[in-house]
């Protein structure tokens, strides 16, 4: 995340409106961070297939 922090902040700043709040910036930064983390997990093979999620959710929903 640190490597792309400046890039993310510039992207967010380009989308700010006069009505934007600091909370809006934090939310967008959090979203971009989560997306980046998800992409890294996918590349590392740390994801579940649809079938695996279905099986796991059976136990979660008990």
Shape: elongated
Beta-strand proportion: under 5%
| Number of H/I helices | 3
User: Over the alpha carbons, how many angstroms does the gyration radius reach?
Assistant: 17 Å
Major sheet: none
The percentage helix is 55-70%
Q: Please tally the β strands and state the result.
A: 0
Unreliable residue runs:
none
Q: From the helix content, strand content and strand pairing, which structural class follows? A: mainly alpha
* Rounded average pLDDT: 91
Please report the distance between the alpha carbons of the first and last residues.
Answer: 36 Å
Q: Secondary-structure element sequence? A: HHH
Task: Describe the overall structure.
- This protein is mostly helical and 62 residues long.
- It has helices at 5-14, 22-43, 50-60.
- It is built from three helices and no strands.
- Helix 1 crosses helix 2 (22-43).
- The longest helix has 22 residues, at 22-43.
- The termini are far apart.
Keyword list:
62 residues, elongated, single chain, 3 helices, mainly alpha
In terms of topology, how is this protein built?
Blueprint: H1 5-14, H2 22-43, H3 50-60
Helix pairs in contact: 1-2
In short:
With 62 residues, this protein is mainly alpha-helical.
